[in-house]
Amino acid sequence: MRPLKLSLVAFGPYANRQVFDFSELGDNNLFLITGNTGSGKTTMFDAMSVALFGESSAGQDGRLARDLRSDFAQGDVLTEVTFDFSLGDGKIYRSYYAPEQERPKKKGDGLVKISASASVHAISSQGDSELLAEGVRFTKEKIEGLLGLNSNQFRQVVMLAQGQFRGLLEADSQSREKIFETLFGTQYYVQIEKRLKEQAVEIQRLHRDAQGKLQTILEGAEYSTLQAFKGGIKNLQQRMTDVIHKEHSAEKIRQRAQQNFDAGKSDNEKLKELETSQKALEELQNQASVYREKQNILQQAESAANILPYYNGRNTRQFEVTQAEKRLTENREAADRAKVEQELAAAALKVAHGRRPELEEKKRQRQSFEEKVVKLEEYLQSRKELKTAEDHDVTSKKKYLEAKNDLNALRHKLRNMRQEILALRKLDQNLDTVESSGKAVRALIDTQNEIQENTAIVNLATQRVETLKGELKKAKLLKQEMLSVWLTDQAVRIAATLQPGSPCPVCGSKEHPDPALHTDKNITDAQLSELDEQITLVEERLEHEQEALVLKQDEQNKRLSRKETLENTLGDEKNIPIDILIQRRQSLKETYLAVTHNRQAVLALEQKISAEEKLEEEIQAVLEQEQGAWQKAENEVTRQVTLVATLERELPEQYRESGFLTEKINNLALQIENFENEQQQLEEKYQLANEVYTTTKEKVSSAVEDLRRCETALSEAVNNYNSKFETSAFADEAEFLAAILTEDQIFELKDTIETFSANFAMAVDRHKQAVTETTGLVFADLGKLQQILDAAIAEFNQQTEQRVVMQTTLEAKEKELYRAEQEQKIIDKFDIQYQTLGRIADVASGNNNRRTSFHRFILQTLLDEVLEVASQRLLKMTDQKFYLSRDEGLRDARKQSGLDLILTDTFTGTQRSVKSLSGGEGFLAALSLALGLSEVVQAHAGGIRLDTIFIDEGFGSLDPTALDQVIDVLNKLSGEGRLVGIISHVPELKQQIGAQLQVREGLNGSSAVFRV
Q: What pTM was estimated for this model as a whole?
């Protein structure tokens, strides 16, 4: 993964849009990120991590993505991050993330919550964009698939975040296993472990199946064991042997009957053969004289065939002699002609050689003119460069004056802008007073309005309380009246029960002078109870209203107190009527808005001034650059003028005329070329004539030798022919030629004679054999012999049928036995296989003394490779003191281990845990491990490209020597094409690393810019 561009909006200390364009680094793969503490250096790492995984660089234990919103941003500006990166496949990947956040409502007051959103696109080299995933969860899963890393692994091997730098170094064995499994794609070896286990289980299943099949076969054959089955087969085979013996006896009887029948039949056929051979022999004896004549012709032809090759050889040699004589004559004539041509060519070549000094003089003249041409070209080029230098001098001077004017104009503009800021800031000084007065007026208006509104409410509450008091008073009076009537009615009831002389139950008197009398009014207990309930209800309502009235009166008193306080704050304005206060408030509001607008204008103007100051620096740099270019151009003009004058002195004026030197050189070149061509043609002609003369002489010698050889061969061929003919039986050559036959004719004649001879001899032998074989024979009675043979065959067939029935039974049993034995072999084979594969599966799954699975063993090998590369860097960074290795000890027999790390001190020869390292040592070890891991992963080409690494702090713990060694390693790493970004406050790094990302704080947030 290689970052291309990172864009932030309202993120961390960056209030507005901040773009980190890594292409500005050019070929600088090592760069430093500098800035004050809290300015936002680590924020770049946070933004990358948020864009990819929705988490900050500190992970889930750090700040959440929604907590990274900028405090400097305006409320309507949403926080978002866009990150462009490449993976080496020719595409650009763009990830986008916006955290959960709130924004002001478009209408009315309040905030609206916006859910988090994310997406990732792939952009082809043609600019076509393809949506790969959308939504926070799906986008994170897709990016993890593209990178081959989750967020924790990404921080451990790519983004070494502040406070988590030693995460990979000090990770436990299980955590490091997950990281390496993802980086190196070793899931395949897990599948191997799984497959081995599955195969072992499958062998066990097949073993059980084979045992089941064997038991089924034994049960079908009615045997309990395979050994018993074999014993039963043996008994059946013994019975089969007895049956076969009987069949063999019957077979012998049948054979004897068959032999007798065949012998009688043979005797009869021999007697018939005697008659047939006698007739054939007589026919051949009649043809014997004809074939004796053919034999004489064959002998003559064979004798002529022996002489014929010598006859043909003599004639061929005679023809060859004639042809050789002809070739000799032709070659002698050609040799004479070639000699004349050779002598003429030699004379012409001698004349040409005499003109060679003239040729050398012309070559010298041409070389002299060619040297002048070089001077002429140098002169013309110098004139052209002089013109270019003069033009460049004018242009450079013009650019210098323009840059100087631009700089003066910009400085004048800056002075005006700074004066404008001073004026705006004077207006800004009254903003607090205006704002305070405006708030006090507003609060007084609101308080007076509240007092007016609450006065009416208090009055209504007071009226309700008074009303309820009246109702309660009336009810109590009514109760007194009703109670009086009720008491009177009770006295009447008692009086009705009084007897003279009896004590009154009320007063105890025995005299009753004036007993109560009955009235028209009648009050019941129920009426009194109902009235008591009404009184209680009114009392409760009254109490509630009184409490509410007290609260409203307290609130009114508070408002009156606040009004008095606000009036004291306003001073002379406390007696101003409400409508005047409203007008005053409106005026203060307008003043406040105007001053607020001025403050915003001041902020905008400050930003503009900051930009113009940067532009001033750039124009100043351009001015210095253009001044140097102008001076350089003037120096170039002076140099070219001097060079042109020197060349004009060396080159006469006529040579500077257009085409003069070219014409001279071309004429001389043409003369030289014609002379050299003529001389070359003469030499080639002489060489050819000489070669032709030599060749013809050789051909004459060869022809003489050939003729001599042909004459010798002819003499030998004549002698051979005469010798062969004289020993033959032919009277003359004519008889010899008449006896000649072709090879086909000889072969056909010989074949005919041989065929007759063979047939005659066979007929004689056939007749002799027939006479011999029939001596003492008579014709046999075949009918009687056939009856005897049929009886013997019937007996044999009966015995054979019994044997077949038993054999069929035996073969069926033997087949079942064979099946049973095959199943037993399968069982034995699976036993052997399981002894090996089962053990391998156990070992591969970690059931061994080391508690190391096959997958873990592969990871250990990869870790050893990583540690070897990491140790090379660590040794260099620590003056050959430290190196990393894998702890091969078994710490806990219940757990798989083998991926723990130890550090070896070569100075003391001791080993210790990496967790015991000091800050500086731990930094160097963690950095070496991260770099080694990156290098090995890419070397294995596991689909993951780790060509980027970011390091956040840690350099401050190094001494100067260690720091220099680390920088050397990082420079070498960046030279290999990897991007290395460093965050540090160490001053030495600023001096050693030229490419820097400078982060600056401001009143309105931070900003960052690449300086290369």
A: 0.40
